[in-house]
Amino acid sequence: MGKGCRGFLNSLVLLTTGAVLMLIVVASASAWRSKGRWLQELGMTLNPPSPAQVDVRSVVIRQVQGASDLTTAIFTMEAVVPTSKNQAIGGFVLGQTTLLYIARGEVRAGVNLGELKSENVQVTGNQIRLLLPAPRILDSKIDVTRSTVYDYDRGFLGLGPDVAPELQAQAEQQALQKIFLTACNEGILTQANERARLVVTQLLSTSGYKDVTVDTQAVPLGACAAPSTASLAPTPVAPTLPTTPSPAPTIAPSLAPTN
């Protein structure tokens, strides 16, 4: 056999040996990966990961708090308020200015669901019991766009002071006080409490709970404290004075739940 033939055979043997070694390495690596996966699966079987712990009460609180200030009752009313101011010199009254204002006001009541805490929620399986925060007045204001000066009179020979904006501002404050107290006397907080219970019960029932109990708190003393002047809607610089007096309207309060 010639040298060329022997060289060719040696090269062939080397290539074949290298290929066999490569196959052995690849097979070993594959077996090692398979063994690693098998050991990992075995470890997960023997020590399964613990399920994530979820605080159901926190979930319920976040769901209910999404409504924030829940307005459940709105009281609207028109109030007729007279105001006056004298023009005097040295204790002698020269004239008197009177203003008759017809104010339309609104009082909103409900519960602040942002005050709900985890201790106010009890969850057992598909049963849930929740204690709502106490009801309160959420807002009170005079709607100046729907209110009007019914009469403005500076008296005999117009000797009364020209103080229309001042008298209107006083009339708005007095009207707000009157509407606010009337809403309280009509039981707006009691109605807001009951409506809040119904609304939250329906909300939780649609979330999958089969047995839902929503408790309410008694109306706290002082919940109907008089509003501050900051609750008033912005007052125009000057009132729109009447030109021809019209018949006095029929005043009737309205206490209605929200939808």
List keywords for this structure.
5-stranded antiparallel beta sheet; 28% strand; 8 strands; alpha+beta; 2 domains; 259 residues; 36% helix; 3-stranded mixed beta sheet; rod-shaped
Number of domains: 2
What is the helical fraction, as a range of percent?
25-40%
Q: Quaternary arrangement of the chains shown?
A: single chain
Instruction: Write down the secondary-structure element order.
Output: HHEEEEEEHHEE
User: How would a crystallographer describe the biggest sheet?
Assistant: 5 strands, antiparallel
Gap between N and C termini, in Å? 106 Å
Q: Pick out the low-confidence regions.
A: 23-29, 51-57, 229-241, 243-252
Instruction: Compute the number of strand runs.
Output: 8
Judging from the principal axes of the Cα atoms, what is the shape?
rod-shaped
Radius of gyration: 40 Å
**Number of helical runs?**
4
**Structural class by secondary-structure content:** alpha+beta
Beta-strand residue percentage: 25-35%
Determine the mean pLDDT. Answer: 73
Describe the structure.
- There is one protein chain.
- Strands 1, 2, 5, 6 and 8 form a five-stranded antiparallel β-sheet that branches. A three-stranded mixed β-sheet has the order 3-4-7, with helices on one face.
- The chain contains four helices and eight strands; from the N terminus they run ααββββββααββ.
- It has helices spanning 3-46, 56-65, 164-185, 188-205, and strands at residues 69-89, 92-112, 121-124, 127-131, 136-142, 148-153, 211-215, 254-257.
- Residues 23-29, 51-57, 229-241 and 243-252 have low confidence and may be disordered.
- It folds into two domains: 1-49; 56-257, no CATH class.
- The longest helix has 44 residues, at 3-46.
- By secondary structure, it is α+β, with helices and mostly antiparallel strands.
